[in-house]
């Protein structure tokens, strides 16, 4: 069971590993690595390790990357440490590599923090293509390998996430909102998708995709938590301004929804569900999936917080 934080941003881990989803020998190290900074989590580190090496400790690439986390020699020289205390810092040592991956992720997140858009995707892109490429392109570079890498890692996070959670500090209603949303981790984004009973076909260019958009996920989670008593419209701006009770930031609890105004006062364009521990769950954008993200990815925007119970 994963235990969420007390409701204050940045407190406690928000997500843990699904039991049996990673090799037992690495579970404790992945859990430790996934809490080095707010931009990483244990399921994200697990998804990266799988994508990099499929869990092979002595993997080698054609360009010279080594180990489970596929470090190039120059990068390892900066971020490699003797994590397990055996006297040797080696990219072929799983414990050393796992901790170095998280250490490097955190550094990349800081380096790319000012790039507009999805900070987690930019961090992953920088791990694959280098931070200079992300800064130069001001986003995920148009390299097929990098684009595929980011998609694969984000899509696999749900597989490694323990969804049997209890949200400490949440209202009972808020805890069920979080649980209802977590059920759909990894579900495709579909504009116009999502209803009371779960994912639905999108509309327009998303007509062939069954999934959720941001407000569709909120609509479903709140409907499920209320037993159908609270029926929200499929519009983020209306959900975040005309329903529920306004909540100040210092009283934010798991299950509260946050309307995000990315457009400098021109209106709410996105909505997310707070899950505790400085994390949110949301349906980000076309080509992505329902996933957990750090709350501080949205701190530069204006918020409107609502509680529906």
Which descriptors would you attach to this protein?
309 residues; two-stranded parallel ribbon; alpha+beta; six-stranded antiparallel beta sheet
In short:
With 309 residues, the chain is α+β, with helices and mostly antiparallel strands.
User: N-to-C SSE series?
Assistant: EHHHHHHHEHEEHHEEEEEE
> How is the biggest beta sheet arranged?
6 strands, antiparallel
Q: Quickly give the structural class.
A: alpha+beta
- State mean pLDDT (0 to 100 scale): 88
The helix tally amounts to 10
Fraction of residues in β-strands: 5-15%
- Major sheet strand order: 5-10-6-7-8-9
Radius of gyration: 19 Å
Helical proportion? 25-40%
Q: Could you state the oligomeric state of the chains shown?
A: single chain
Which residues sit in consecutive blocks of at least 5 with pLDDT less than 50?
A: 1-13
